[in-house]
Amino acid sequence: MNIPKTMRKYCPKCKTHTEQKVSIYKPGKRRGSARGERRHAERKHGYGGQKFPKLAKPAKVTKKVTTIMTCTVCKKKYNKLGIRIKKFELVAA
Ligand SMILES: [Zn+2]
User: In this predicted structure, what is the pLDDT of residue 20?
Assistant: First the structure.
């Protein structure tokens, strides 16, 4: 699916339609020292440590793509709800 690099959309801060830049959200690097990661490692530790079945095959064939909209007037950023697409491409429009 082709996504245009710029779109004219409603900006919640300007309260009007403005030109907005589109970029793709990417999750950050996972930290091993984060609380949830340490808890997970502790639960998996030792005999009988796997507490939930490992996924034999993934249930979904697509991944959700979240787009970040940046207002060119006030520089406000907000995320759009993720949509499931197999392949995406940012194109100049
Ligand atoms: Zn704005």
Answer: 92
Q: What pTM did the predictor assign?
A: 0.70
6 Cα: distance to centroid of ligand 1 (angstroms): 14
Class level of CATH domain 2-91: alpha beta
pLDDT single digits (tens) 7-37: 999 999 999 999 999 999 998 999 999 999 9
Positive or negative: CA dihedral 17, 22, 25, 28:
negative
C-alpha span between 54 and 1 (Å, rounded) = 31
Domain ranges across the chain: 2-91
Tens of pLDDT along 37-69?
A: 999 899 888 888 887 788 888 888 888 889 999
Taking the centre of ligand 1 as the mean of its atom positions, its distance from the CA of residue 85, in whole angstroms, is 27
Q: Compute how many other C-beta atoms are within 10 angstroms of the C-beta atom of residue 50.
A: 8
Ligand 1 centroid – CA 53 distance (Å): 46
